[in-house]
Amino acid sequence: MKSDHLSDLEDRLEVAGSPATGPSVLAELASDGSDDVRCSVAGNVNTPEESLLSLADDSDEFVRATVAGNANAPARVLVRLARDSTEDVRWAVASNANVPVVVLVGLAQDANPTVRAQVAGNTVVPAATLSELAKDQDEGVKWAVAGNGRTPPKALSDLAGTGDSATKLAVARNSGTPANAIQRLAEGDRLIRATEEAIERRRALICERFDIGDDCVRGVNMIAKREWWELDQDAPVVQAAKTLC
After folding, report:
1. What's the confidence (pLDDT) of residue 2?
2. Mean pLDDT of the chain
3. Is the residue at 36 inside a domain?
4. Which residues of the chain have pLDDT under 70?
5. Which DSSP category does 31 fall into?
6. In angstroms, what is the C-alpha Rg of the chain?
7. Which of 93, 171, 186, 211 is placed for a possible disulfide with 68 were both Cys, Cβ 3.0 to 4.6 Å?
8. pLDDT, tens digit, for every residue of 231-241?
């Protein structure tokens, strides 16, 4: 199918967004006079690299942002768009799972906190970058760091003490949070949801670590009063706690 057979805007939009459309037709539609059509082409995974490179310079920021979010956008396109003057475009680059790590590291210094937060939520961002972003002044950035499974335990532990309630909740839910940080959260204000989550997480960790049944509330509570993350199965307090089950 040739694009010159598509005179109706709705038809061009449908073809431009279809996963069945071939690269040659998409290449033609990449120069369409409609911003919406070019935007659909920009988001199509079949769009050829040269067309994406051209659309990366499009006058419409939504077209450029859509290119930035395309899973098949090549590295050289993402490198170019990471320098875009529009924050929405840089945000889209930071959200792309295939973005080069060096680009993410650069965007971690972006002046806009929403871009930095998107970097913090990316699953390929380096641990060292996450540690730096954990010190960010913006709570949205810290919340994103707290929710990332790649965040180092030390950074999560720090966020357990410095983050707002939403960040602390994310820390409590992160499987990488160290036990002593969970303990600290569990001893916090019981009106904060993060504390509730931490108490439940602490209970689960203690039960798993010391092979104690879920219903042994007294035993769990006895162990929870100690620095239980440093204890082993043979510790006297653990043996005493098990007699309560």
Report:
1. 44
2. 91
3. yes
4. 1-7, 189-192
5. T
6. 25
7. 93
8. 888 888 888 88
93, 114 contact by CB (below 8 A): no
CB 206 within 8 A of CB 212: yes
Round to whole Å and give the CA distance between 66 and 217: 52
Q: Is residue 133 part of a domain?
A: no
Q: State how far the Cα of 138 lies from the Cα of 155, in Å rounded to an integer.
A: 15
Alpha-carbon gap, residue 134 to 147, rounded angstroms: 11
Cβ-Cβ contacts under 8 Å for 13 (sequence gap 6 or more): 34, 36, 37, 40
DSSP 98: T
> Is position 65 within any domain?
yes
What is the count of structural domains for the chain? 1
Q: Tell me if 167 is assigned to some domain.
A: no
By residue range, what is the domain housing residue 60? 1-99
Residues 25 and 2 sit within 8 Å (Cβ to Cβ): yes
Tokens of 202: 């602490």
For residue 34, give the CATH number of its domain.
1.25.10.10
| Largest interatomic CA distance in the chain | 82
Alpha-carbon distance of 106 to 139, in angstroms, equals 20
Nearest to 100 by CA among 67, 78, 71: 78
- pLDDT of 189 reads 66
CB 60 within 8 A of CB 85: no
What SS3 class is residue 125? Answer: coil
Tokens of 154: 């030390």
Structure tokens at 47: 């769009």
pTM over 0.85: no
